[in-house]
Known about the structure:
The structure holds two protein chains of two kinds.
Chain A: E1 3-5, H1 24-32, H2 37-43, H3 47-76, H4 86-120, H5 129-151, H6 176-204, H7 217-249, H8 262-296, H9 303-316, H10 332-344, H11 346-361, H12 369-392, H13 394-400, H14 404-434, H15 440-466, H16 483-513, E2 543-544, H17 551-554, E3 561-563, E4 571-575, E5 582-587, H18 594-611, H19 614-631
Parallel strand pairs in A: 1-3
Antiparallel strand pairs in A: 2-3, 4-5
Helix pairs in contact in A: 3-4, 3-5, 3-16, 4-5, 4-6, 4-7, 4-8, 5-6, 5-18, 6-7, 6-18, 7-8, 7-9, 8-11, 8-14, 9-11, 12-14, 12-15, 14-15, 15-16, 18-19
Chain B: H1 12-18, H2 31-63, H3 77-113, E1 120-127, E2 130-135, E3 144-147, E4 149-153, E5 158-164, E6 169-171, E7 180-182, E8 188-192, E9 198-203, E10 216-222, H4 224-235, H5 244-255, H6 258-261, E11 285-286, E12 291-292, H7 295-303, H8 305-308, H9 321-332
Parallel strand pairs in B: 1-5, 4-10
Antiparallel strand pairs in B: 1-2, 2-3, 5-8, 6-7, 9-10, 11-12
Helix pairs in contact in B: 2-3, 5-9, 7-9
Amino acid sequence: MSETALRPHENKETLDTDVTDGELPARLAATWGTAGGLIGALSTVDHKLIGRRYIVTGFFFLVLGGLAAVAMRLQLARPENSLIGPDLYNQIFTMHGTTMMFLFGVPIGEAIAVYLVPLMVGTRNIAFPRLNAFSYYVYLFGGLMIWIAFALNVGADNGWFSYVPLAGPEFSPGKRADFWAQMVTFTEVAALAVAVEIVVTVLKLRAPGMTLDRIPLFVWAMFVNAFLIIFAMPAVMLASSLLILDRLLDTHFFNQAEGGDPLLWQHLFWFFGHPEVYIIFLPGTAFVSAIIATFARRPVFGYPAIVLSLIATGFLSFGLWVHHMFTTGLPQLGATFFTASSMMIAIPTGIQIFCWIATLWDGRPVYRTPLLFVLGFFFIFVAGGLSGIMLASVPIDTQVHDTYFVVAHFHYVLIGGAVFPLLGAIYYWFPKFTGRMMSERLGRWHFWLAIIGFNVAFFPMHLAGLRGMPRRVYTYPAEMGWDGLNLVSTLGATLFVASFLLFLFNVAASLRDGEIAGDNPWDASSLEWATASPPPPHNFDRIPFVTSREPLWAERQALPVVSGLAVDKREVVITTATRALPDLKESSPDPTIWPFVSAIAVGAVFIGSIFTPWAVAWGAPLAAFVIIAWFWPKSIEEDK
Amino acid sequence: MRCCRPALLTPPLLLLTACSGWQSSLDPQGPQADLLAGLFWVFTAVLSAVWLLTMTALVVALLRRHPARTEPLELNTRPERGMARTVGAAAALTLVVVVALTVVSYGAQRALFSGGEAPLTLKVKGHQWWWEVTYEDPGPSRQFTTANEIHVPVGQPVHVKLESADVIHSFWVPNLAGKMDAIPGRENRLVIQASKEGVFRGQCTEFCGWQHAHMAITVVAHSLEDFERWRESQISAAEPPDDPVRKRGMQIFLSRPCVMCHQIRGTPAAGKVAPDLTHIGSRLHIAAGTLPNGRGNLAAWIVDPQGIKPGAHMPLIKLNAEEVEPLARYLEGLK
């Protein structure tokens, strides 16, 4: 076993070189472990525990958003149905979109990154682990707040886009739109925090030897995604803050009568809203790259092309927001620019698809459930991407914009591009998360039900839209001839829901008595498979030294490792950003309850400010107090 | 209205072409909609071909005889180079398709928005949840306002100026043209033109609150002579009722809060916040396409607006049972 020894600190501390291989795991687990009890659970800073909570919470919100969708499908199954009235329907479609975009779509990608990125780059915890804990609680509180508001009949009802002036003070009295705006604030704080953690983890915490060109494609996608979040989210935070100021303090940012502009809202919202789509999609590409390599039994073809495509997608995604506004009467030449840029994004996306197909071409495909979901991704996502090219055309968009054609399109893109890969990812990493395999037989049933149900539910929506059915209508007259298509959609949706029930059953059953997985059940190549399933609190007994882009395939005997890290205190290796040379040993924060308390304080300020601006004045010192407590210097080596 | 039920087993494309309707972008009835439908089919053909090619490549990649390889990292440089060339060629082809479609789209866009003179200009103002329509004319006495129904002469381009009284709405009559938003504080423009006589339906397509679903507009395309006849009758004020029941109906209308919101030209009722009722009897629908026009539906609407269109700004005006019939008769007679 080759070893790269790190220089010890001057003072005497126990290093992993001083401890036998047999004794090391237990001592590291004691150092990095999470205390028992409720306080221990709320104090944890272990990225795997936080990541697991994030994933479970994300799926919890998926279920809630899915139930909202079921309610809508039932209402629309028949023309002039009286099951749900307009007031409730408007809240339900708003909660569906808001939940799927803000409480499921963005967080679930980040959740899986929180769990897997530190393992994949071969480190012991995520960067800023307390911030990570804080971000989870803020996300949870924001999501609970808006759903509790909905349960109390103050659910947001202006759509997930909350266009002004409809969402402004004049046309949305009451607190519904304020809850929506503050939910955005909650989830964006959480998303930004995680994005910063991922960027720093990838740049500074990679295992020695993991140079830029050895970073797994999964990690590259999450890294680019984190930058998208950092640049896109401030726009919507700004927008939602201006909205809440208009509503609570009578500012007039969006009030045209006072020199404001309703279109300003749309520009700010879509400057976030379009990258948002890619923020949801890029984690999908991360899952696809990882799954294809493992099940095609070869490295993904065209690594540099895929990395450059990811970066190009990131840049381009900021240049096409206006295609959501083609019918607002913008100057035609300007609109054409956005047609061109919207279509151009097909090129990096296409290159990724071609590289994955080439990988399968030259591979030896093994048809397990994760690969099936990736094949489903190709089938659905490519269709959705191509109908997106239609929407990029200004003239075609004037016909299909805000109709069910668009509803069909973005469900093809988002479910095809993000949810199918996500489901594949759950089957793929479930053994790593839990130590047990999921049932392959149920997995196949799940896949076929899902792909059939999905297409039966969403394909007819293209036709309904072309035949004149607008979005966001709570009912439609019988003589429009949309009833047959809608009934088919509802039946398909029933199948799709059944597939998710099967999935949840599979998860529950496999948790209890799934086959024991072992460290690397798929013979995959990336570092998360180099440790136990589920991984111990310290992730790796010894930090791996990376010699190849596919470390576990290159080093069949044993991974070379790095030694010289402290055993009795939390220590991680900091490496240089590009060449991943070992640079520093850095302490990693211990568990503490303060992130949880801070999240409560911040949540109280956010929710209180819905009701009175004084909440900000009183809440700021409170938040300052808990944050000071959080950052209070501890008398440890590093602080001296 | 020609519309078929989708047969479940028909292939999707067949199902697409076989269907049309009075609110369908696939059944174009004017030059703008024709152009848009043509462009749609070009895109559909090209993009379907791209999808089929990609799926074929995927299926071939899965079904071919795969290289013998015991270790995943045993890669040969020759096939790798071939794959690089193929991926490069596919990317180049994508670029060609994308550029071609952009150019085609731009051409259509220029043709569509080039503008030009139109003999007829309408101002359409979106309200929660109905459309106010004003026919502009150089002579102020020949201007008139109506609601929720537009009449146009066949074969003539009609300029539509779009405004909003409250929130953002979007004006869309798919058989005639694409949609355009009505945004408060702005004026957007759209050209519609019908190439044959018929009745077409349009609907608000920007979510505008509670009754977004019930904000339809009817477009009636006539021959030029019929259109002029219609216009003359709309310009005129309401004719006073001649029979005693309708006279009683008018009295009820004028003595109730109806006049606070509605206008009937030729009577003291001059409200401007709700649809102009001067010629309501001549319209095909009431309540923005919610109900077919008729005495029964007029009565139902007056008696229970919130049951028919919950949230609508039409309040419930308490009437005695025997007042409903005369009022409905009066309105029905406002041809």
